[in-house]
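Bug #77: duplicate submission created two jobs. Keeping one. Sequence:
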Amino acid sequence: MALSKFKRRSRGRRSPLAAAVLIGVGLLMTGGIYAGASAAVAATDDTPAAQASVEEGEKLFQANCATCHGMDLQGREGVGPSLHGVGALAVEFQVSTGRMPMQMHGPQADQKPVQFTETQTRSMAEYVQSIAPGPDYPDEEILSGEGDVAHGGELFRINCAMCHNVAAAGGALTEGKFAPDIMDTSALNIYAAMVTGPQNMPVFSNMNLSEQDKQDIIANLIYQQEMTPVGGFTLGSLGPVSEGLFIWIFGIGGLIGIAVWITAKSN
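Kept job's structure:
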């Protein structure tokens, strides 16, 4: 009698891992449902129906930017500069590239993962534009990439290549600063950089480069971004430094290795 009772209990007893497996499955299902719902909400927020608004931009600015730039956009000494006069384009450039909000103070703000949707970025840009007007979004024609590519290339080499490299691959500056690679930069942010002069970049007003000149430069850069390299490995497009290093290590090194091998073989 006692033996049969023990057998029945043994057959009804669950494995010690069963509870852990059930909990894991439950967590995975809950996480999957939450992720799906979040993606659906995000997609809904960025639909045309979810238009940018100054009111929403003010809330976002106060929650994420006012600590450094002040509630009145006047900035705080030693913390963040004034935003008066920077306009919507400066906000678009800094926020849509992840440079702002800044993680830590340094020689310059670097790109990092973007924290806001396009609609939220546009809302903050419109809010700043309403309080402290400055450069605003351009006509779509300027960003179309349909300018004079050859003329844009000439203007880029004259005005931009000394910092960004002829191939737009970026380059080092002084005191830990650098000109970034712009081969993945959008047409809007290229225009915004020329107009607002972020970081160490000068401002190119219409007195320096006309709107048509800017359109041609953008057309040239879009052409470079879409062009397939015809010369083989680009080696970072850093010019003779990287090419010379490659030849020194692999070319000369290979010849030395072959010479040693031939000598060893003959001995």
